[in-house]
Amino acid sequence: MKKTWNFSAGPAILPKSVLEKAQHELLSYENSGMSVMELSHRSSLFQAVIDDAEAHLRQLMSIPDNYKVLFIQGGATLQFAAVPLNLLKDGKAGYIVSGSWGEKAYQEAATLVGDRAVILANTKENKHTLIPEVTEIPEGLDYIHITTN
């Protein structure tokens, strides 16, 4: 079998062991008689999937308990609107622009909330070839947005 390496944004290559486990559990996840794709999002078995994913993500990225982890659908472009509409309260939103997706996220927020969306750092002058250094974080930000790819 030929194996292709996918380095594009979005879905990427998975380790063979992960694919084999998914294959094994496709018809009956955790011996439930249903695949994980058939589980009710309200079931305890699916909640365990979400809890496990969040715990692993927190460990992998050192996310402290006082931060929320959101698993949301709709793709990046939808989230560019959903994030400021849901997270912006009384303050401002800080944007670290490190590429075209970060630029799109900032533009969408600026369209929705005007000057309450502020750029903290931008690497456009460097053709977005690096993650910009943020030298100062102003007070009163409700959140900071960065797209790292």
Question: Which features would summarize this protein structure in a list?
Answer:
149 residues, three-stranded parallel β-sheet, single chain, globular
Task: Chart the SSEs and their pairings.
Layout: H1 16-25, H2 44-61, H3 75-87, E1 92-97, H4 100-113, E2 117-122, E3 141-146
Parallel strand pairs: 1-2, 1-3
Helix pairs in contact: 3-4
Question: How is this structure best described in words?
Answer:
There is one protein chain. The protein is an alpha/beta fold and 149 residues long. It has 2 domains: 16-61, no CATH class; 78-146. Helices cover 37% and strands 12% of the residues. Helix 3 (75-87) crosses helix 4 (100-113). The chain starts with 15 loop residues before the first helix and ends with a strand.
Give a quick precis of the structure:
With 149 residues, the chain is an alpha/beta fold. It has helices at residues 16-25, 44-61, 75-87, 100-113, and strands at 92-97, 117-122, 141-146.
Low-confidence stretches: none
Number of helices: 4
Across the major sheet, the strand order is: 2-1-3
Q: Rg, please?
A: 19 Å
From the spread of the alpha carbons, the general shape counts as globular
Count the domains: 2
Question: Can you summarize the main beta sheet?
Answer: 3 strands, parallel
**DSSP E strands, number:** 3
Estimate the mean pLDDT confidence. Answer: 90
Share of β-strand residues:
5-15%
Specify the structural class: alpha/beta
Query: In which range does the helix fraction lie?
Result: 25-40%
End-to-end C-alpha gap = 29 Å
